[in-house]
Every structure is written in structure tokens, then in C-alpha cells.
Amino acid sequence: MDSVLNQVFAGLSMASILLIVALGLAIIYGAMGVINLAHGEFVMLGAYSAWFLQEQFGLGILVALPVIFLMVAVVGWLVERGVVRWLYHRPLDTILATWGIGIVLQQLVRLGIGPESRYVARPEILDGNVILGGLVMANYRIFLIAFSAAVLVGTWYLLTRTEFGTKLRAIIQNKEISECYGIRPERVYALTFAYGAGLAGIAGALITPLVSVTPGMGTYVVVDAFLVVIVGGVGSLIGTAVASGLVGTASAAFSFLLNDTLGRVALLLAIILLIRFRPMGLFPDKVRR
Amino acid sequence: MKRRSFLKGFTIAGAAGVAGVTGFPGIWTRGNSAYAANGEIPVGVLFSLTGAVAVVESTLRDACMLAIEEINASGGVNGMTLRPYQEDPASDPATFADRARRLVIRDKCVSIFGSYTSASRQAVLPVVEGRDNLYWYPTLYEGRECSRNVMYGGAVPNQQQQEFVPWLKEKFGGRFYLIGNNYVYPREENNVCKIILSQIGGEAVNEEYVPLGHSDFSSVINRIRAAEPDVIFCTLVGDSDVAFARQLHAAGFDPEKMPVASLTRSEVEVKAIGGDAAAGHFSSAPYFMGHKSAENEKFIEAYQRKYGTDQVTHFVSEAAYFQVYQFKAAVEKLAASDISPVNIRNAAVGLSMVAPQGEILIDGNLHTHLWPKIGQWQSDGQAKVIMESKQRIAPEPYWAYEGQACTENGLVRS
Fold first, then answer.
1. Which chain A residue has the Cα nearest residue B49?
2. I need a labelling partner for B181 at 20 to 30 A (CA). Which of A42, B15, B19, B354 fits?
3. Residue A9: is its pLDDT beyond 70?
């Protein structure tokens, strides 16, 4: 029983990391139809920003989060303005272009900062565990679960309760008509891309205490994020949330019943089956394109 | 890089007055006593500077180049200088084979120093065996190989475990939890570990493999918590090891009750893990940066002077360094006209020299007799050597396979 509870917690904790990485991806796709293959590199840039701020200014990751968000958002904004905006009517080319940008970012970090794995200190305030009977929960993982839920709510608020969100949804529904109402889609697009990148940056910073910070770290992270987005239905906020919960707990369950290698295989098989019967994901986008 | 070394080759050849034939040196110089010409001995340096394993291999390149420069600065080998040809195989086994071929055929290297992973060594193997060249491989590896064209500078399983596993059982208990990445190296090491455990009355409570690059260990940690082993016997590599160590620490495990005993964790990984999360756990290796010896002090001093005081040396970079000196000692025994890969190999067998880890010896089976040590990681990121083996340990790459032995005649089955 204890091990089942522990495993449920492990699943939730995996889900929270998936959610925070996949959210930015889902927003960028949902708003602009751009499949951003450089998303993993934005995650990596977030982790390196955390390292940089720690080395240069002695900032812990929690304090530095807003700065990291802004730093990576600026990179995202530059990428959108510099490359992606020329390709909105050529969706396949954006895949190639963002993949290329990802490689460039990765190699820039490798050449500029070096290939070795970097150390980012964990926030010591979150050391320790909460122990309830046989259930052991690391404080940091509890924090991640709470934080990713907060980011989800914040994003939902941004999209549905602010002027920016209203404009964005207007553009998603009909770009030309919204332009007639004086909305400037290029500005909204750039900000949305920057917001998605910034979220990825935060995710990167937050996972540094749990993983190894290397130029290639984003590659592993982004594959799972894509799984989540596909399961959830591309572009759907609620879908992303539910799917990260599902994928996280399913991979925890499979790896508990089998082991991590077979669990991975079982998870991928389950996802293939799911998209066989629900090709658009769990919560398909109802907007006509 | 490539263009630069090509241009350099061009000017040197031009100075020698053979500018007209630089395009096809292989054709024009065949039949000459080719290997050591113009007072230079060409050697290949084949470590990735880009791609996934560049993290480690770039440090091996650094150590190897340091040794070459030291040798050249102190008068070379019998008055000849070592001429390094560097290639970047980009962490890709196929590129390794291609660049090795280039070094052997175009650059006529008498030896190649290179690579970290078993996959890349096995890719280079057909090249060096087909051309009867010599490959100096510095990494610890899983054994079960017996090429006459590879000089193995790192430990094989029996050298790392023969003393380590009984020591762990004595100190913490005999219930081991085996965790590794899912490929050949951890599986072979765990085979050896299980054999030793069954001989001394211990047991493996679980044996588990995760995919390479796996980074979420919450399920593994839950299973370890439920199994309550005495020792976590760990053959995770690279990023997986870093992630595992950090998550284990965050989950509140106490190294005094349940230490991680690693065969792969070196100063490089510990730097990324952070001293506080690595402190108290153990590694077994022939070399630690914290080992006290005059040769090691000299090595570290020279390394940090050249590459920066924040750089660390580790058990693979030490081998990458001493193998160049082994090469030098072997070539010194030969007349200039006799220098060839096969002669160098034969001269190297039985060679003994003092490396940073202690006095090492090249066995007839081309592996190296080493001095295994047990290090306990400290919060400053260094290992404190808490046990050194009493004698040098002989390499037995087929230790776990009865009736097979690697000898000076290659693999022998009895």
C-alpha cells in the first residue's frame, strides 16, 4: 500500500514537470500552429540562465525565476521576430526552421559555455521530506506540483480574463476579421511566442536540481512534452493539463509494474493505441482552421 | 580545424621540397620507411569535441595533448618529435571509423589515441585490425574483448570489483541493489558483481536497467526504499548518474546507512552532482584526483596550468595521459627504421612505468595491471582514497567466463 501511494506521488511529480514543459509548447502551437522543435533548447536556456545568475550574482533559482522568464522570453521574441514570422504560411518549414534554431542554440551554448555538465544549487529552503506513515514526499517535488498548478491557472487567466488573451483568441478564431478590429496579430504572435519560451525557461530552471545541466538536456525533455501535447489534443490548455497527469501517472504505474525500460515501451504503446482511436487527442481543438 | 591541419601539413611538406605530391602522399611515399620521416612520428588523436560524449572526450583530448606537448618539449622520442593529427569524430561511431581510416591511411599514423565509449572503440576495431595499426583506448570497459591491435589502458571488471565488492559487504552488508543504464557495460559489470556476491554469500536484491539518458528516478527510488538494500551498486553513466545522485539526495537517503557504490562516477560527474549530494558515497577506480603521489601532483599541476584551475583530472583522463608515455617508452626501444605499429606493440608488452596512480605494467594481453582504489566523495567534490589495494591487480577481461582467457596469443578457449 505504501509503495502504491509513493508511486502515485511519483506520478504526480513527473506530471508536474511534464505540464510545465508542455504548456509553452501547447500555447505556441494552439495560437500560431507552429510546431516549435526548439522548445527543448528554450528549456536548456532556462537551466543555463539559472546557472549563469547563480555564478554571476549568487541568485538562487527561486529568486531568479522572474529574471529567467524574461531572459528566455527575450530569446523567444527574437526567434519569432527573426525567423518564425516569415514562415506562418509555410507550417512545414517552421518545423525545419525551429529544429535548426534548436541545433544552433545548442551548439552556441556548447561553444560559448562549454560542453560539461553544470552544477546548479538546489533551493535549501525546500530540502527535506514530508513523511505521512509510509508515504515519503520530497518537499521540492511538492513545490513543483503546486507551482505547475499555479502556472496552469495563471495561463488560463491570461488567456481568458485579460485583454491580451481576448485578442489572442480572436486571432485564433479569425485572423483577418480581428485585424479589421484593429488588433495587430504580429505583435500578439510575438508576445505569445515569447510567453511560451519564457515558460520553457522557467521549466528548465526548476528541473535543474533534479537533472544534469548540459547543452543537450532539452532533447530528452521535449520528447515527453510532445507526447503530452499529442495525447491532450494540440493546442488545448485543459488537454495539456489532463494529458500530463495521465502520462505522468501512467509512466509511474508502468514502471512500478514492470521496470523503467519496459515501462517506457508500454507507455508508448498505450499512446499509439490512444491516437489510433482518438487521432486528435483527448480534447481536440474545436476551432475551424 | 581540418583545413588548418591540412594547410599546416601543406607547408611542412612544402618546406621539405615535395610540394608537388602533397595531394597523394600515400601513393608517392609507399615503400619508403614511411612511419617516421623527417624526424617526426605521426600519431592520431581521436576524441570527440562535439556531440553527446564531448563532455568527457574533450578532457581526454586535453590530457593526451598535454602528454604529447610535454614529451616534445623535453626532447621528443629518440630525438624525433611526436606529430599529433587531431580529428573530431563528433560522438558518432560511423564517423569514428571514418576518421580512424583517414588517420591510418592518409596521415600514416603509427598509433591512434582515442575514444571513450565501447561503441566507438568497436567501430574503430575493424579499421585498426584490418591495417594492423594500434589503438590506445584509455577507458575502463566491460572486458570480453581481446584484440591484438588495441592497448587497453583502463580497468576491466575484475580490477574494479575484486576488492570493492567484498569490502562493501564487510562494511555495509551483502544485500546489493544493482542499478545501471541499459547497455552492455552495466550488464557485464553486474554479471561480475553477482558472481562475486554469490561467492562471498551476498545477494542482489534487485537488478534494474533504465534507458540511456533516463532522468526521472522517482520510481527507482521508491523501489529502493521498499527493498531496503545495504548497498546501491551503481553503473549509471553521465547525465543519468547526475540525475540519480541529485534525486536520491533530495529524497533524504543517508549514505552512512545505504551508500551508492559506483564504478563510473568520477570527479567530472561529482562536479555536476554537487559536493553535498555526492558526499559520503563511494567509487572504485585506479585513480582519483585526490590520490597522493609525486607523479599525480605533477600531472594535476601541469594540467591545471594549461587548461585552468577549475578543471579536474579523473580516472579516464589519467589513462589518456599515461598511455602517451607508454607509447613513448615503447618507441624509445626501437630504431627509427623499425618504427611500426606491430613493433611498438611488441615493445610495449611487459613495459612498466610510474603513472600518477602508481607503477603500472602492460600485460601480454595488452591490458594494463592497475592499482584499484576505493574513494569516498567529500563535500569539496574530491574523493578521499580510503583504501588502496595491497598489490597491483592483473587484468582478466574474461574473468566471468570460465574456460576463456585473453592472452598474448589472443583469445584462448580451454
1. A115
2. A42
3. yes
The yes-or-no verdict on residue A1 having pLDDT over 80 is no
Please check whether residue A124 is in contact with residue A139, taking contact to mean a CB–CB distance below 8 angstroms.
Answer: no
Q: What is the pLDDT of residues B116-170, one digit of tens each?
A: 989 899 999 999 999 999 999 999 999 999 999 999 999 999 999 999 999 999 9
Contacts of A256 in chain B (CB under 8 A): 219, 222-223
Inter-chain touch B273–A209, beta carbons under 8 Å: no
Angstrom distances, CA of residue B305 to CA of A214, B268, B289, B300, B301: 25, 18, 15, 8, 6
Domain boundaries, chain B: 33-154+294-369, 158-285+372-413
Separation between Cα atoms, residue A79 and residue A193, nearest integer Å: 9
Give the minimum alpha-carbon distance from A171 to chain B in angstroms, rounded to a whole number. Answer: 38
CA distance B369 to B156: 10
Q: What is the pLDDT of residues A94-136, one digit of tens each?
A: 999 999 999 999 989 988 988 788 899 888 888 888 888 888 8
Percent of chain B with pLDDT strictly greater than 70: 92
Average pLDDT of span A34-63: 93
Q: Which residues contact A96 (CB under 8 A, 6 or more apart)?
A: none
Q: Is A122 on the interface with B (CB under 8 A)?
A: yes
Across the interface, do B52 and A217 touch by the CB < 8 Å criterion? Answer: no
Chain B residues 273-302 with CB within 8 Å of chain A: 273-274
- Is B153 in contact with B138 (CB distance < 8 Å)? yes
What is the distance in angstroms between the Cα of B363 and the nearest Cα belonging to chain A? Answer: 34
CA of A150 to nearest chain B CA: how many angstroms apart? 22
Selected from 3.40.50.410, 3.40.50.2300, 3.30.1450.10, 3.40.930.10, the CATH number assigned to the domain covering B33-154+294-369 reads 3.40.50.2300
Q: Which of A19, A122, A144, A212 is the mutation pick for testing B, counting most B CBs within 10 A?
A: A212
Contacts of B222 in chain A (CB under 8 A): 3, 6-7, 10, 256
| Fold classification of B158-285+372-413 (topology level) | Rossmann fold (3.40.50)
Q: Are B331 and B41 in contact (CB under 8 A)?
A: yes
Residues of A in contact with B219 (CB under 8 A): 7, 10, 252, 255-256, 260, 263
- Other CB atoms within a 10 A radius of the CB of residue B83 amount to 20
Cell of B30: 609507399
A220 closest CB neighbour out of B213, B225, B273 = B213
Q: Least CB-CB distance to A7: which of B222, B238, B242?
A: B222
**B33-154+294-369 shares its CATH topology with B158-285+372-413:** yes
Helix (H) or strand (E) holding B169: helix B164-172
DSSP strand pairing (B373-377 vs B358-362): unpaired
CB A112 within 8 A of CB A52: no
Give residue A255's pLDDT band: very low, low, confident or very high (50, 70, 90). Answer: confident
Thinking of the domain A2-277, which architecture would CATH place it in?
Orthogonal Bundle (1.10)
Contact status of B208 with chain A (Cβ, < 8 Å): yes
The DSSP element (H or E) to which A20 belongs, if any, is helix A2-32
Q: Which residues contact B367 (CB under 8 A, 6 or more apart)?
A: B152, B156, B395, B397, B406
Is the CB of B271 less than 8 angstroms away from the CB of A117?
Answer: yes
Residues of A within 8 A of B269 (CB-CB) are 117
pLDDT in tens, A201-247: 999 999 998 888 988 888 888 888 888 988 988 767 888 999 999 99
On average, the pLDDT of chain A sits at 89
Q: What is the pLDDT of residues B345-371, one digit of tens each?
A: 999 999 999 999 999 999 999 999 999
